[in-house]
Amino acid sequence: MVSIVTPTYNSEKYLAETIASVISQTYQDWELLLIDDASSDNTLNMIREFADKDKRIRFFQLTENSGAGIARNKGIEMAQGNFVAFLDADDLWKPEKLEKQLKFMEEKDADVCFTAYELINEEGQALNRLVTVLSEVDKNKILKANYIGNSTGIYNAEKLGKIYMPPIRKRQDWALWLRCIEKAGSAYGLQENLAGYRVRKNSVSSNKINLLKYNYIFYRKACNFGAFKSGVYLLRFLFEQFFVKSRLITTHTT
């Protein structure tokens, strides 16, 4: 079984579409764990409606807003599946996502896997931009930049054990995939578009100052690097992000 962890916070605008993309999976042996981070809108009522209709959907509400990392960790704690996957509350999966990815993991004997994905706008329309993936990512590579789209990633909890995110407000998903790779040795990329990442205004990646700040915190707190080493890796990140990783984004016509 695949345990799918989805943190929610005031997600009513996109959540129904996200849940529907899980329900429509061709691979049906899953549980969806919706962890609400103290939403103030109609998110929780929406979650309850879906959970009442499908017993594979379970939920938990945090008593105070704690951030996506804490919410995801609660989902990981609740997970009962052999595999743990992640899907953000505004992203989408293609119907064959789980089926194709699990088959690929079996063929590769891979314990950590991720896939290509497309960029969509706030209305869910394709932006004709595809984020392709590297065939393999090791620890050295992921320290330079996060090459795993969080809503495409799966790890084998049966083999690796449950792996959690550090208590940092941003970039905790990057830290989780680093920890997974440290245990597994490598993560393997499936070069197929199996998810949609919703590009929203005021995201961390759209604010370059915040991007640098949170990345520095990632190196300091998640990697336990000293100030100088963190600064060096931040420079390496800038080169990797803008001169290497950027080449993975291609024009894509559906």
Short characterization:
With 254 residues, the chain is an alpha/beta fold. The chain has helices spanning 15-23, 43-53, 68-78, 97-108, 139-144, 157-160, 172-184, 208-222, 227-244, and strands at residues 2-8, 30-36, 57-61, 83-86, 92-93, 112-120, 126-131, 136-137, 154-156, 187-198, 249-251. Strands 1, 2, 3, 4, 5, 6, 7, 8, 9, 10 and 11 form an eleven-stranded mixed sheet that branches.
What does this structure look like?
This protein has 254 residues and is α/β, with parallel strands linked by helices. Helices cover 39% and strands 24% of the residues. It is built from nine helices and eleven strands. Strands 1, 2, 3, 4, 5, 6, 7, 8, 9, 10 and 11 form an eleven-stranded mixed beta sheet that branches. The longest helix is centred in the C-terminal third of the chain and has 18 residues, at 227-244.
Q: Taking all residues together, what is the mean pLDDT?
A: 95
Biggest sheet: strands, sense, closure?
Answer: 11 strands, mixed
Secondary structure tally: strands = 11
Proportion of residues in helical segments = 25-40%
* Estimated structural class: alpha/beta
Number of helices: 9
Estimated radius of gyration:
17 Å
Low-confidence stretches: none
SSE string, helices as H and strands as E: EHEHEHEEHEEEHEHHEHHE
Distance from first to last alpha carbon: 31 Å
Report the β-strand fraction as a percent range: 15-25%
Q: What best-fitting shape do the alpha-carbon axes yield?
A: globular
